[in-house]
Amino acid sequence: MGRGDAAGSVAAMLRIRLILLGALAVVLALATLAVPAGAASGNNADTALDQALAKFVGRSDGSPGIAVVVQRGAAPVLHEAGTAIVGKDRPITLTDHTRVASVAKAYSGATSLAEVTAGALKLDSTIGATLTGMPASWADITLTQLLQHTSGLADFSQSKAFQQALVASLLIAPPPATLVSYVFEDPLLFKPGSKYHYSNTENILVGLMVEAATGKTYPDELQAKVAQPLGLTETSLPSDSFMIEPYVRGYDISNHAQPEDVSQLFAAGWTWASGGVVATPGDANAFVRGYVGGQLFDAATRKAQLTFRAGSSEPPGPGTNSAGLAVFRYQTKCGTFYGHTGNTPGYTQFVAASKDGTRSASVSINAQITPTVNKSAFPALRKIFELAVCAAAS
Fold first, then answer.
1. Are strands 98-99 and 278-279 parallel, antiparallel or unpaired?
2. For 96-152, what is each residue's pLDDT tens digit?
3. Could you tell me if 346 and 262 are in contact, meaning their C-beta atoms sit under 8 angstroms apart?
4. How many of the other CB atoms lie within 10 Å of CB of 284?
5. How far apart are CA 69 and CA 75, in angstroms?
6. What domains does the chain contain, in order, with CATH numbers?
């Protein structure tokens, strides 16, 4: 490495650290042949969606690329605009791998609720009775409260200790239990069950409870209880930063003139069950159809899952948001859908399906767009979320 390269690398790392410290406080906030959008029947909802996608990637503050999967029949329909790789004419496809960000919380919800049906866990299983080495104040917090974001636990991703550890070791993550340890000394924000507060700590604990209850690793149980039953062949939870080809490059777009590739910036283990899942748009679409459609657990567990209270996904989904167990209800002008959103450096995601799982929509972009940082672009993206479910409902 020459002098110029070394200086550039140091500058890049400093810039990366600034990106992470700001962006990660917000984060953790089906390889099926698709019918191309142009070959679909085509209706007003499809047209409105396609126009919005083209407009979004044309914005100075929009993402380089966007893919929307809509399914209202036997096969998914892919709508796309822009590029998966800056500088190339390369649209995002159904089989490109991407980081699903906090949509991973729906996957940990699916796994744990499948364990409830299997008898390994109960909805009222507590941290104290399931895990060792946790703070005494956490002992009575239940699986239900973790899944519905009513535990009162502080968010480890907001912790200064976590941020310092992350920057010091971007590519090697600690064991998952270490992540929650960053808030061991933080007091509960409120009495568990009394309020809603979105916290990344909760889904790390869900994954740990799955491991303790089954004696198997959470990634293995994710495959056994979710991926295999739903036929998800391109869904995984890696511990490192490596992305399997083909994959969508994720970009930091703070410098719109020169987006920076942050696809493999940090190890997925830093967000684990709360945000580390990698999947393709096709797999994500198949997942939400099966998850919402009730294919993974029994009727009693599903009834509990679909009991809602006030609470918004992060970032907000379309329409009026309410929180169930690792799923959000989106009441829109085109009907009610259920799913999850997520964002992480380089990516923003949205997946949703009708209650019976027969109609679905997912949105995947290769930039992190948040309502607090991207105050002009996010409303346009949220409108696309709604246009996507409207196309699914049409």
1. antiparallel
2. 999 999 999 999 999 999 999 999 999 999 999 999 999 999 999 999 999 999 999
3. yes
4. 31
5. 10
6. 3-393 (3.40.710.10)
